Structures are given as structure tokens and as C-alpha cells.
Amino acid sequence: MQRSAWQWGWIGIALSLLLSLSGCGENPWNSPYRSGDAAAPVLYSSFSERPKHLDPARSYSSNEYVFIAQIYEPPLQYHFLKRPYQLIALTADGMPQVSYLDAAGRELSPDTPAEQIAFSLYTVRIQPGIRYQPHPLFATDESGAYRYHQLSEAQLEQIHTLDDFAERGSRELTAADYIYQIKRLAFSRFHSPIAGTMGEYIVGFNALTKRLREEEQRLKQETGQDRPYLDLREFEMAGLKQLDRYTYTIRIKGKYPQLLYWMAMPFFAPMPWEADRFYAQPGLWQRNIKLDWYPVGTGPFMLAENNPNLRMVLARNPNFHGERYPNEGEPEDRAAGLLEDAGRSLPLVERAVYSLEKETIPYWNKFLQGYYDTSGISSDSFDQAVQFSDQGDVGLTDAMREKGIQLTTAVQSSTYYFGFNMRDSVVGGDSERARLLRRAIAIAADYEEFISIFANGRGVPAQGPIPQGIYGHRPGVAGHNPYVYEVRDGKIRRRPIEQAKALMAQAGYPGGRDPQTGKPLVLNYDAVATGPDDKARMNWWRKQFAKLGIQLVVRSSDYNRFQEKMRKGTAQMFSWGWNADYPDPENFLFLLYGPNAKVKGEGENAANYENPEFDRLFNKMKNMDNGPERLAIIDLMVELLRREGPWLWGYHPKAFSLHHAWYHNVKPNLMANNTLKYKRLEPARRVESQRAWNPPVLWPVITGLLILLISLMPAVVVFRRRERSAAR
């Protein structure tokens, strides 16, 4: 049967569509990226929570540090590979020099006891020749004056984003920029979350805070502006001094070695005075052109696109001063391929694209398709990715291994704990009765089971307040908590529930009965449990207390109400957690320091634990250098806490992350946030995998085209009949 011209025409159209769909383009059909992007040294990742602050004086959130830690450079950083964590110079020309002074300013010997030191002086020298990223705030005219520091109304009408500025400039980093940023920490306008801590140590910090607040109020009345510009260069802080163009000093009260850790955080990154002057212009603020949105730094990357409703893009800073991949690490790093890039110039990628992903399933599917280079593991996808052996060892499923996906795990420098309000008349206090009750509950609360059920096995039962990787943590059998665990066959085992019941009887609660009422002892657990997923967790806690005959009443509320209860000390028992700011035991032990009590001191001691001996040891330990003497004191403190039991020590979470075979230099660093510069990609391998994992599926298209053709045929037949009729 011969086909008519119109039939051949429709067939031709269908074939053309199929050929175009199955053409040999570089990207698979379902690729979310432009053609050619996957073949470039561009890292693809995601974010789920919109960054709120990109100003290093204000930011204190991990989702914000993903970006600003690549842009801003404090004087120090953590070595990428070495463990325990080791501070090294970043922009500094070597580690800061520390000297100790008495009250008269005379220098003391390095081995002077901490209680005899009136001041510590940190001298920081930065490397010459470091320059800021290109930015309009540095642009100058022919006379050297800044182009955009006094914008007219006519100029502002043409400005909507930072890209609307035609000119950009740069300048050299100086010591004055570091001093300026520390002054910004003291300026209450910026609401720096570490202002309180720094006010305790940096000389003149609080005095400057007061002075700036007074001056700001005066200018508000004088100008009528909500945010009048203050040039912080005109205000002095007694503890800061610039010695020359590249050298500055910080004077602090007493001895506080932890200051070095703070100097590796973005809080202490430099800030050019020009940034505050440029962004202070009211017209820019109204257009959301501000430092919180458009950061400016000296780091390896700069923020090329800020669209938190879609994506964030970091691009290589063309003015980056250069840095080399480390030449040494731990013994196993070379075998793991982590030293293959030793000595190479950083960064190793050109860009990093972070796409907004609010839902875990689409995010997970894109990772499996090869469109994200690395991924966490949500509870929904855990069983698909990870399996446990009979011995409890963790590994990848066959499906993951077939794709060449690799798993990295690390115990985080964090702790999740169950706390007792030590002000409570039943579970609190230092009586033997209360101690035995807390100890019985600690044995009954099976955190091994909790980790298995609610954390997908991603955690390690805590033996005390100090997690792995932090100085003072005792690993293995030597570090077990003897009040809750015992060693059997060389392994740490939770004590049997019979021992917990015996402790209940010793405490005066045989069978969990309150001797005064003869009824089961009733205890209250205040929790943030407002979602449907919390019901199983609350039921689990009820079962743990029921083992001892205790009736647990869960009092759930939202987080704001929960915080209010904690501040007032009305909660009887609660759950909370803490992430390390820096790798020092002081950062965990201060959570149980008496003066930090939540009720009395508005601090982070949520259990309101007060013990004079513990506080005495804490004050002696906190400013000591690491060594045998400090370790011995830490051991005494941990032993005291285990015996008193103000917490069920809970567990230290374990981070699981996945990455594809083309993504290199992966080693968890739980302290460093600026590790993007070390990552390396094999883009050609990525493209090859994406094509293999995303083959075109033609049958739905072919079926759709056939249905379309069949549905159109009657209409075309009628049309042709009318044409023939008209022709007659």
C-alpha cells in the first residue's frame, strides 16, 4: 500500500523528533546542568537551609560556614590531614608568638603558673602580598578616590545588584583589617554571638562596646538614621595594637590558650574598613546590597551567585595568594591516596555549585544519577546505602559498590545527652539517694538500642562528656564508665538491668515504688516532641523507665517553650546536645561548670550542676597547656562526673557521607570548615558515569508520538476530503 504525501510528512516529523532527542549531546536527557558543565572542574553539591548571615562577625551556623569559610581567611587554620587536630598558619606568617605579663606589664617566663599571669600577649604577623577579591567597594577613580563610597540618587537608580557596578578593584591585606574586625565583634549592632566570651578576655573589649553603643545612639538622634555609619578606625580598644603594616597584637586577661582556636574561625577573619563604609549607604541597604549578602574576602573562592531560593555558586578568586596541598599527614593517608596532590597549587576546582534541595528523595536520586558529587545519608535512604555485618561492621550495599560509591565515617565532636535538673528535689542534688536513682536510670537507658533504632546505628555510646578526637578522651576499655558499664571478655558491656533494680532498692524505691505513696515513682521528661516521628522516641523512653517500675510522663512542647522551661529551671529531666566550637576539653567540661548554670548564670550548664570540687578543678584545668598534669586533672573531673551522674552520657553521633569515585581528597575534618580548596575531581569520569547511569528511554516518546499520529489521522482525513470536495 502506498503512503500519501501527508503520511510521509508526519513520519518525517516523528523521525526528526526522535533523532533530536537521541542525538549525541554531551549531557543525558535528564541532566539539570547546561551542556559541558559536567566536563568542567566544577563541584556539584546542595544545601537545604537558607543561609541567614554571611557576615563573619554574625555567622555561627554550619550551613553558613559552608560558604563563608571558603571566602574569609582568619590567621590560622587546621591542618587538613593531621590528627589530633593541629593548628597551622593560614594568612599568618607562622604561629602567633605568645608572651605572659604580670600586672605591671613585665614579661614572665613561659612556665609561670596560670594564676600568676595577669595578661597574655599574642603577636600575629601576616604574610605580605595577600590581596582581596575583586569588588566594587575597592574601585577607585583616576585620583585614587573610591568611586562608590558616596553614591548619588542618580547612580542608585541604576543599581539593583552588585553586578550592576561597572568597576571593581582590590588592595593588599593589612594588620589593620584584622584589628578592624575584632572591633566589629565588640559593636553590639552586629550581634556577634561570641561578644560575651571575648568580653571576658580581650582587654578593653567591653569598654569599646559601651563607647560604640553611646556613639551610635548620639548619631541616631543627630542624623535620624536607623544605622548611622561609624568608622571603627576612630575608636580604640586597649587590647589591640598595630605594630607595623603586617603585625598586630592582642592582649587578653590572664591565660587563655583557647584563643588560638578562636583565631582559626571566621570571627577573626579580616574585614576592610571600606566594606562597612560602602555597605552603610542607605540606598544599598534598601536594595539588600549588604555584607550579610555579598561577602568580601581573601580566600580561594568568592561568592559568584547568591540566590538562596535556587542555588549558591562559589567561584575561584582570581586574586588568591596561593596555597599548596599538604605534603604530609597520618601514616595511612598515603595508602588512601590522600597525598597524591601533595604540593599542588590550591584550589583544585574552579567552581562549586550548591543547589537548593528541600526534599531528601529528589536529592538522593540526583546523587545516584551522578549529578551530585557527594551526599549525606538520610533515614529514608539509609537501608538502600548501608548495611551492617553480623559483627556490627558497617559497609555499603552491593548497589552502592557497583556504582563505585565510597563511604566515609567519623565520630563527630558532639554529644547528645539526657540531663537531670540538679535543682530538682527528686532526681537532683548530691544525696546518696538521688545519685543511686540517677545511676539506676543510666544503666536502664539502653543507648545502644537507641542508636540502632533512632540513629540508624550512627553513633557511639558515650562514656563521659568528652568525645573522640578531643584531648582528654580515653579510648577503649581504659576509658569506660564503670558505673554504667563493665568489662566482660575484654569488651565493654552495659551492666545488667538487675543491678539497676538493686540500685533502685538501695535508693529507697524498691520495684520503682515511691515509699511515701506506695505508688510507682512518677518522673517528668520535658522534650521538644511536636512531630509524628517523635511518638516512637517518646514511647521508647517510657519503656526504659518502665524497666525500673518508674512511670515516665512526657511533657512535650515547642522549642521556644522548652527553652523557657530550661531558663527557669522547671524541667525535671530533658535531652540536649552540644557541638564543639574547638577541639579542647574545656569546651565540653564547661557545660557542667557551676557558674555556667542555666538558672543562676544563664549559661550552657543546662543541668544546673554545681560541685565545688569540680569547679575548682575546672578553673585549674581550663587554661593549662596540654600535658600529663592537665590530663590527670581531666581524669579526676570525668571520674567525679561519672560518680555524680548529672547526665546520662548519651552518645556521640557518627557522620556518614558518600561520594562518587571521581571525587577525591575526602577525609573528615570536624574542626576545619575551609576544606573545599583541597577537593579534586575527575570530570571526564563523571561524564562517562552520568551517561551510563542515565540512558535515554525512548519507548514513552515513541508511544506518545504514535498516539499523537493516530489521534490526528481522522482530522487530517476529514480535512483532505473537504479539500477534494472544494476542488470539484
Automatic annotation (TrEMBL):
Gene Ontology biological process terms from the UniProt entry: peptide transport
Organism: Candidatus Endoriftia persephonae
Gene3D superfamilies, sorted: Dipeptide-binding Protein, Domain 3, Periplasmic binding protein-like II
Residues that span the membrane, as ranges: 697-719
Keyword field: Membrane, Signal, Transmembrane, Transmembrane helix, Transport
Official protein name in the record: ABC transporter substrate-binding protein
A Pfam entry, by short name: SBP_bac_5
Stored CDD domains: PBP2_NikA_DppA_OppA_like_18 (cd08505)
Top-level taxon of origin: Bacteria
GO cellular component: cell envelope
Similarity annotation: Belongs to the bacterial solute-binding protein 5 family.
